Amino acid sequence: MKIGIFDSGLGGLNIARSIHQLIPEYDSIYLGDTMHVPYGNRSSEMIYKLTERAVTKLFAEDCKLIVIACNTASAKALRKLQQEYLPQYYPDRRILGVIVPTLETAISLKVKKIGLIATSYIVDTAVYTEELNKLDNDIEILPVATPLLVPLIENDGHKWVKEILSDYLKNIQDKNIDSIILGCTHYGILKEVTQGILGDTIQVISQDEFIPIKLKQYLNNHNEIEADLNKDNKYQFLVTDLTSNYQDKASAIFGRKIELVKTNI
Ligand code: DGL
Fold it and tell me: Domains (ranges, CATH) in the chain?
């Protein structure tokens, strides 16, 4: 069986790449819902529906464990999938998200005032604040919605990113933050530009650096899941809509040429 990695689009390839780097032996399937990206401006109902469909596809493709790399999908769908969907349809399989692991990582870095850039959905629902309060009441989080960043990244708009990101960050720059969470799959590629804008004293917390470590720890602690995983270093990349532009972009994000395959879900 395989590890599934799900994202609303191609940004999650950034996470897939770092998972492959850390634990290359595990067979995996990446699924990017390129037909419906971005999720971050959609309604709750639609985000859940699209995420459940994607998860169902990955389970049908023989995934034992799915990492929902998309913050927006994790925020909306993870709990319901874990508490209602899995027990009903796949009681012996697992789904992991990215929000709690991100907050645990931030806490371990001993930060006290965290900035957060994320989609409008993440900021409007205050999911990071809510989850943080359950873990540590002494840490403050200041979220900023950055809805233009994903369309810019997905549409070759890199030359405008710095200017637009600087403008968004003005909202929190004078608030004495000591760190910033890049709370979106796509933002891993904005690490340097974010550091450049905020300066070296601000810790940039990027999911591609620790989600693979958390996954590895999970597999070490869950032999019953790990034992079922194939270890033949085989990776597949599925998307719900495919153009030659997506192919090029996927290879650019992944860091080497990869073959996307269109799938119907
Ligand atoms: N992948 C989404 C996330 O991590 C961002 C892109 C989107 O809005 O779909 O939140």
Answer: 2-97+210-262 (3.40.50.1860), 99-207 (3.40.50.1860)
Identify the residue whose tokens are 């799915």: 66
Q: Is the CB of 119 under 6 A from ligand 1?
A: yes
Find the angle CA(4)-CA(81)-CA(223) to the nearest 5 degrees: 50
186 Cβ inside 6 Å of ligand 1: yes
Residues 34, 9 contacting (CB under 8 angstroms): yes
Per residue in 54-77, pLDDT (tens digit) is 999 999 999 999 999 999 999 999
Taking alpha carbons only, the member of 149, 158, 229, 214 closest to residue 187 is 149
Contacts of 78 by beta carbon, 8 Å cutoff, 6+ apart = 68, 95, 97, 99
pTM above 0.90, yes or no: yes
Q: Report the residue among 31, 36, 70, 116 best suited for mutation to probe ligand 1: largest number of ligand atoms under 8 A from its CB.
A: 70
**Residues classed as catalytic:** 70, 184
